Amino acid sequence: MSRILLTGATGLVGGELLRLLLEEPRVTQLIAPTRRPLPPAQKLVNPCDPQLTDALGQINEPIDIVFCCLGTTRREAGSKQEFVLADYSLVVDTALVGQKWGAKHMLVVSALGANPHSPFFYSRVKGEMEQALIAQEWPRLTIVRPSMLLGHRDKRRLNESLFAPLFRLLPGRWHAIRARDVALALLTLAFSASERPVTVLHSGELRHIVHGRALNKRAVNR
Q1: Chain centroid to CA 134: how far?
Q2: What is the pLDDT at residue 215?
Q3: pLDDT for the residue numbered 78
Q4: Which of 14, 44, 142, 201 has its Cα between 20 and 30 A from that of 98?
Q5: What angle do CA 138, 144, 30 make, to 5 degrees?
């Protein structure tokens, strides 16, 4: 039985993962700090503050597994500084809080193309975030790098609306992936064994995990 910390619960992947974790019998407590309140739910603890760092600071309970699904775009953030806060600083803060309260496994949503040496600002920040988490020397760190995410957003992103049809046609790791599939893969990875301290997975591998999960479920139900 596990106690979970989740940040990014109001986002596309985080919202899907929140619902899965609340239904998951292996989860005894789900701590999901947010800027605005979540609907009440059994086993959900929701520290809330307009400053997510302050919401994280309210946590004072043991944690086993950390999920971080924080992510925005430079356009949504409004500036480079705010983007770095959301996609680097708050991710690192999430990890530090998890470590403080005993977590041994961190799972984080990064992005396809993440590279600390990238000439592109977005990819460079994502790569620097990954490096910072690796430097924390987690017993187990899982990094997922999905391609374009598919799913319903309350606020549409222009680039996703324009390029989604193209990314549905691209092969392999470039092929668009449903946010729910990313969440399902994260849940599966959290409760599966691995001897590798750091695992990096792309969209094709995430879909493979979800496909295997579906096959196992059908086999059990026969």
Answers
A1: 16
A2: 66
A3: 87
A4: 201
A5: 65
% pLDDT > 70, the chain? 86
Count Cβ atoms below 10 Å from residue 76 Cβ, excluding itself.
12
Note the pTM of the prediction, 2 decimals.
0.89
Query: What DSSP assignment string belongs to 124-177?
Result: HHHHHHHHHHHHT--SEEEEEE-SSEES--SS--HHHHHHHHHHTTS-GGGS-E
For residue 177, which amino acid is it? I
For the four alpha carbons of 67, 36, 21 and 40, in that order, the dihedral sign comes to positive
Q: Which residues contact 126 (CB under 8 A, 6 or more apart)?
A: 87, 110, 111, 113, 114, 115
CB 72 within 8 A of CB 109: no
The pLDDT of 127-150, averaged and rounded, is: 96
Instruction: Average the pLDDT over 142-153 and give the result.
Output: 86
Q: Letter for the amino acid at 180?
A: R
